[in-house]
Amino acid sequence: MQKKVVTIGNSAGITISPTELRALGVTPGDILEVTVRAGVLEARAVSRYEDAPMAELMAVINAARTRA
């Protein structure tokens, strides 16, 4: 699929369709890890808990248990 690079303020970007967002498992406002390897742009969803300390993770788990 071809995409056109567009100007966004002083930056540039491409648009991502709702279908493509769902395939990535992201919504507007989520964080993506973006890398370029051998001329290929790669984007992957970053879990909001990826770098969270263990205490925060346990608090999230315990809160989910009490809601069930």
Write up this protein.
This protein has 68 residues and is an alpha+beta fold. The chain has one domain: Pemi-like Protein 1, Chain: D. The protein has helices spanning 18-24, 54-67, and strands at 6-8, 11-13, 32-37, 40-45. A two-stranded antiparallel sheet has the order 1-2. A two-stranded antiparallel ribbon has the order 3-4. The chain starts with 5 loop residues before the first strand and ends with a helix.
Fraction in beta strands: 25-35%
Q: Quick one: how many beta strands?
A: 4
Q: Enumerate the spans where pLDDT stays under 50 for 5 or more consecutive residues.
A: none
Distance between the termini: 42 Å
Helix content, binned percent? 25-40%
- Characterize the overall form: elongated
Label the structural class: alpha+beta
Strand order of the largest sheet: 1-2
Radius of gyration: 17 Å
- Listing every helix as H and every strand as E from the N terminus to the C terminus, the arrangement reads EEHEEH
The helix tally amounts to 2
Major β-sheet annotation:
2 strands, antiparallel
CATH fold topology: Pemi-like Protein 1, Chain: D
Calculate the mean pLDDT score and round it.
90
Label the CATH architecture: Ribbon
Count of the separate structural domains: 1
Using the coordinates above, name the CATH class.
Mainly Beta
